[in-house]
Amino acid sequence: MDDKLMLMIPGPTPVPEQVLLAMAKHPIGHRSGDFSKVMAEVTENLKWLHQTTGDVMMLTVSGTGAVEAAIVNVLSPGDRVLVGANGKFGERWAEVSQAYGLAVETITAAWGQPLDPEQFRATLEADTEKTIKAVIITHSETSTGVLNDLETINRHVKAHGEALIIVDAVTSLGAINLPIDQWGLDVVASGSQKGYMIPPGLGFVSVSARAWDAYKTAKLPRFYLDLGKYRKDAAKNTTPFTPPVNLIVGLQVALRMMQAEGLESIFARHQRMMQATRSAIKALNLPLFAPDVAASPAITSVAPLAPLDSEQIRSLLRKRFDIAMAGGQDHLKGKIFRIGHLGFVCDRDILAAIAALEATLLELEYGGFIPGSGVAAAAKVLTQSR
């Protein structure tokens, strides 16, 4: 059946109908008074979502572009940076930093395991000459479903006194509590196709006063990603370059929906869906890739038992039920599949996805569970946690 695709991947995420209808309207001029009014509202509501009174800039980029902007606006060639790498995206930020000539040191953990905050503490405390200029952390590692302990790592960065913290919040912002001002986070980057409930194409970067001070002396090359240009124009409710007008109009509606739901309710919903999904996977006797203590409320990664094949499971889910789940990346391709439950996703979607997964496992003749046990486990969480 056409037009029944159900996205259960960690991005792009489903888009609400009222957002789609807003984006379907005829474009308006990006230098018009009408668009300036949209910009004013969106900018204010982005600050609400980011839990900050500081600047939040919109760029026409992906999440990777937003993180790259975060890096190049506060650092200079040769600066020493500490990068946490326990998945594809943590490793990517090390590669971006190396491409710009930064002196990169990585603190690593196996894919599927969280970063150890003690390793950051020890390295930062040993830096008595304060040569570390920034620490780059992925909050929710999209490739594995691991949530890193950003709050604790950030405390160690703050104790250092000199280093900035740069956060990849691409799959956490809008799904997981991230109090930017309360924690004193310096630069936080995210992307529109995740918790924001709109299609890909916009990147967001919040910048603290400390980070703006670093911006004044930063010497890495920048032009299109120069956040100073965006800050100057945002003060006039405009943009330095042509923006994706219809995406921003859609964002206006999505942010209104998020405000109506409320931050606490948004975070509770994502937590509930994570718990329901993980409970269901356990009931199906399938191994979870990330441990419970470091599970991301945005993504659940599953490592199917042999002879089950994750790509075969995903293919059958798509063919039979028009449900898309994500595969593993790099060396995990074919070894795990990932269930996205962030953004415009609700309890009903979790139940439907688990029921389809059960039917798929039965078709593949996997006998390691009692039929209906996954749905029952998910339903129990969803009914008890509301």
Automatic annotation (TrEMBL):
Keywords for the protein's UniProt record, in alphabetical order: Aminotransferase, Pyridoxal phosphate, Transferase
UniProt modified residues of type N6-(pyridoxal phosphate)lysine: K194
Cofactors, names only: pyridoxal 5'-phosphate
Organismal lineage: Bacteria, Bacillati, Cyanobacteriota, Cyanophyceae, Neosynechococcales
Binding of substrate, residues: R338
GO biological processes: glycine biosynthetic process, by transamination of glyoxylate
Entry's family note: Belongs to the class-V pyridoxal-phosphate-dependent aminotransferase family.
Residue ranges occupied by any Aminotransferase class V domain in the UniProt entry: 10-329
Keyword Ribonucleoprotein: no
Protein name (database record): Class V aminotransferase
GO molecular-function term, one example from the UniProt record: L-serine-pyruvate transaminase activity
